[in-house]
Design goal:
By secondary structure, the chain is mainly α. It has five helices and no strands.
Length: 74
């Protein structure tokens, strides 16, 4: 996983870790471990972050440089 993308996305949205974690209902200390690469990001949080930032999980994982989300199925 591309941990730099997590911090870049958060900073691009002018959010502190505390603000982000409050918005997504997540513990800040735990989240900081993911952002620093000390823990592996769980897929549930990966999906939550992709939805929050309106991007794809592939972008967060560093598999693409395209920030646009994929079309959603109805």
């Amino acid at each position: 996983m591309h941990i730099r993308k997590l911090k870049d996305l958060r900073e691009d949205h002018d959010l502190s870790q505390e603000q982000l974690c409050s918005a997504i209902n997540y513990k800040q200390q735990t989240y900081s471990y993911y952002e620093t690469g000390k823990r592996t990001l769980p897929y549930e949080l990966l999906i939550k972050l992709a939805l929050f930032y309106n991007t794809s999980t592939d972008y967060i994982l560093g598999l693409t440089d395209n920030k646009e989300p994929y079309p959603r199925e109805k």
